[in-house]
Amino acid sequence: MESVKAQSYDVHIDELAQAALNQHIAKNDYSKIFVLVDTNTKKYCLPAFEKKFEESIDSIFEIEPGEENKHIQTCLQVWEQLSNFDGDRKSLLINLGGGVLTDLGGFVASTFKRGIDFINIPTTLLSMVDASIGGKTGVDLGSLKNQIGVINQPQMVLIFPEFLKTLDPRQIKSGYAEMLKHGLIKDREYWDDLRHGNIFEAASSIQKSIAIKNDVVLQDPTEKGLRKILNFGHTLGHAIESYCLENYDKKTLLHGEAIAIGMIMEGFLSHKLTGLSKLCLNEIKETFLQYFEKVDFDDNDMDAILKLLKYDKKNSHGNINFVLLQSIGVAVTDIKVPEDLFVEAFSYYKE
């Protein structure tokens, strides 16, 4: 399957990924090769990876999985391990895991010794279609998503679809939400293909999502304008995800589960503010509710979630900026939303 050319690196898929990895290692004189895994990928993915890798690994570093461990204390743990095992500026860090691990691992590599090479090998559908492109690295600040980080590109990204067999259905659906988002913001035909067929695990669909995101990032690598459209559903979605993470009486949501709610609500805002038709709005809601159970939010939950909006990364000059849809496949950025519409958006979701 054809590779995708990103800003300064390639995304290789399946057989090409294995060949590209071993060629890269052979032509670079790395002093040390380290692999970062979490407890899940160590068990389910590392053995398969080691069979593909022709060089010896100097050390394997293991962290705990999950968004709740995506913080600076985990970075400290990995930085110390890199130092203790004689990592230097000519070392390589291979990040084998989902989006939490590749975000954190990329940040660790970008800041250790002022920057060492890293390669991302995403192992979840979400990380393959989302975190694999764009060079965003970072960690959370408390329960606030992705507040600390840098944009820095990996040497390459390697996609092995076989790793999807290690995932439970909930993780697969979480990635599916991001794929549907790619259709909503950029490609109506892709949206229709995804929602009408069970093809979202196919390598061709993964490649399509990567290509859509990559096309946006190439035009706006530092998120000054167009790249903001990738945040559709994420303004409310991230606030919902953070709220559920910090409240023990709420079920912790996977990223895709939270942004699915965000896309329904921001679809409603799009209907009110930027011309999205009622027919398309209902189509969006019906599609996401087909795959994601409703989450119950009362008035206190809603108030707390809305207070978290002020921490969204797209905000500027005290304004909360939304990405909304004019139609399916056409997104617009920097839309200001009257506060009274937030209550209506929650009501629409709960109907």
TrEMBL record:
Keywords: Cobalt, Lyase, Metal-binding, NAD, Nucleotide-binding, Zinc. It holds the Pfam family DHQS_C. Gene3D superfamilies: 3.40.50.1970, Dehydroquinate synthase-like - alpha domain. One of its GO terms (biological process) is chorismate biosynthetic process. It is an enzyme of class 4 (lyase). Its cofactor is Co(2+); NAD(+); Zn(2+). Catalyzes the conversion of 3-deoxy-D-arabino-heptulosonate 7-phosphate (DAHP) to dehydroquinate (DHQ). InterPro entries: Dehydroquinate_synthase (IPR050071), DHQ_synth_AroB (IPR016037), DHQ_synth_fam (IPR030963), DHQS/DOIS_N (IPR030960), DHQS_C (IPR056179). CDD domains: DHQS. Its EC number is 4.2.3.4. Residues 61-173 form the 3-dehydroquinate synthase N-terminal domain. It comes from the Bacteria. Residues 175-315 form the 3-dehydroquinate synthase C-terminal domain. One of its GO terms (cellular component) is cytoplasm. One of its GO terms (molecular function) is 3-dehydroquinate synthase activity. This is 3-dehydroquinate synthase.
